[in-house]
């Protein structure tokens, strides 16, 4: 597996100089939609596509149900889904209220299958839509939690 990235110029407003710096941004090759994913699972797992769709829909419904209750949901070596928030910091304890919560989110922490995949992935720099050879391997100590964004599942 190779993680693809492009280099972009960014203006950082952390100081008064509005420093321009360069940063790597990940790029994917596109999006596999739900229907296509079900078709691929059907081919690999030799299970009828209707059964695959039914099980994945049931999994999503069960994740939603349990995360809405406030539970984290561990899916074996796949990873763990848990509810989370982003909130504004306050100077005083009494100033922290529900109005300081900016965003609700679902956090996905990859399990060993994906951690191992990422640890062993090479990196390929893209120029436009063309890969430049000579990617490097990532530092195995780097990593972190995924964030599925503003998808509160409920």
Automatic annotation (TrEMBL):
Bias (Acidic residues): 139-148
Entries under Pfam families matching the protein: HU-HIG (PF18291)
Presence of keyword Chloroplast: no
Example GO molecular function: DNA binding
Assigned keywords, A-Z: DNA-binding
HU domain: residues covered: 1-125
Region (Disordered): 131-154
The protein, known as: HU domain-containing protein
Organism field: Bacteroides oleiciplenus YIT 12058
């Amino acid at each position: 597996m190779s993680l693809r990235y492009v280099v972009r110029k960014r203006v950082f407003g952390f100081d008064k100089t509005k420093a321009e710096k360069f940063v790597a941004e990940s790029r994917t090759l596109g999006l596999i939609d739900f229907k296509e994913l079900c078709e691929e699972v059907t081919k690999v797992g030799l299970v009828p596509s209707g059964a695959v769709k039914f099980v994945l829909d049931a999994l999503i419904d069960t994740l939603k149900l349990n995360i809405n209750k406030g539970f984290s949901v561990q899916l074996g070596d796949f990873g763990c889904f848990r509810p989370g928030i982003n909130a504004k910091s306050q100077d005083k304890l009494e100033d922290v209220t529900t109005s300081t919560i900016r965003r609700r989110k679902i956090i996905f922490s990859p399990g060993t299958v994906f951690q191992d995949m990422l640890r062993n992935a090479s990196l390929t720099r893209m120029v436009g839509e063309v890969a430049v050879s000579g990617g490097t391997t990532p530092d195995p100590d780097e990593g972190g939690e995924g964030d599925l964004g503003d998808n509160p599942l409920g």
